[in-house]
């Protein structure tokens, strides 16, 4: 803008003192500030974008493809005189029999959606280091680890019909076993969770690979976790539990599942969603921030390009005007022909 003003000035003073070329120091400060802000915005956009890519590449310790979560809700008076264990065993058996479905798990949580519970855990026997720890607690049923692509590293998995004399059983994650001295130190030992009476003597029967089911803290991929057999705690099954369903194809026969749930008359399907969609939903804020910061980065680059172009145009106009003034003054004083 100043360059255009300069090019339009026509009144040349003989002394050459009437023409102003602008405040060079102030301009340099403004240009430097603009470039610094541009670099900051572009760098921030790149960092957000790389963070989002890192989130999608995180090894969560599980496989989510072809796994669906189905949240149930009670009908009016559906839980009146309700006995949970036989009802849910029958529900799981009927849904497992649907063609195309390879597994059904009854849980309290939605992987990558609603997180697990949190409690304190300790080994009841003496001689095990790291007694009191904060842990995640997940209620699952047999087949859960196979469905999620996890491995039972030591010991064994839950069974569909554990004998009553087996007592309450649990599997712990590898990270938790390591905190307590390794698999050999915890297998066969008993742990307690919190202060409720039913959770004071739970035998550890296996150690599983680590998995992160909560993306509130994406960097925490090895949370210490205790897995309990949901069939051993029927009274703790919440109203409106979650079914995890594994399918052979990338589609869920939800109409057939709804038909089974409705026929049993206690509940209805409140929502269904794939775990891949749950993962995308958990990262929606990070993804939106990455796109927004990238947009600001593009704007910053455009502003920088405009500013540098304007500065270059001004300098060219300034230099051209200076040469023209000198030539005009020289012609008037006879110094040039």
List keywords for this structure.
single chain, 337 residues, alpha+beta, 6-stranded mixed beta barrel, 4-stranded antiparallel β-sheet, 9 helices, 40% helix, 20% strand
Brief digest:
This protein is α+β, with helices and mostly antiparallel strands and 337 residues long. Helix content is 40%, strand content 20%.
Helix content: 40-55%
> Mean pLDDT, as a whole number?
82
Strands, count: 11
Number of helices: 9
User: For the CA atoms, what is the radius of gyration?
Assistant: 34 Å
Rough shape? elongated
SSE pattern, N- to C-terminal = HHEHEEEHEEHHEEEEHEHH
Oligomer: single chain
Approximately what portion of the residues adopt beta-strand conformation?
Answer: 15-25%
* Ends apart, CA distance between termini: 33 Å
Q: What is the structural class?
A: alpha+beta
Strand order of the largest sheet: 3-4-9-6-8-7
Give a structural overview.
With 337 residues, the protein is an alpha+beta fold. The protein is 40% helix and 20% strand. The protein is built from 9 helices and 11 strands. It has helices at residues 2-8, 24-56, 84-96, 144-147, 174-179, 183-186, 254-264, 275-282, 284-333; strands spanning 67-74, 101-107, 117-123, 133-140, 152-155, 169-173, 190-193, 202-208, 225-229, 242-247, 267-274. The chain has a 6-stranded mixed beta barrel. α2 (24-56) runs antiparallel to α9. The longest helix is centred in the last third of the chain and has 50 residues, at 284-333. It is elongated, with a radius of gyration of 34 Å. The model is unreliable at 10-22 (pLDDT under 50).
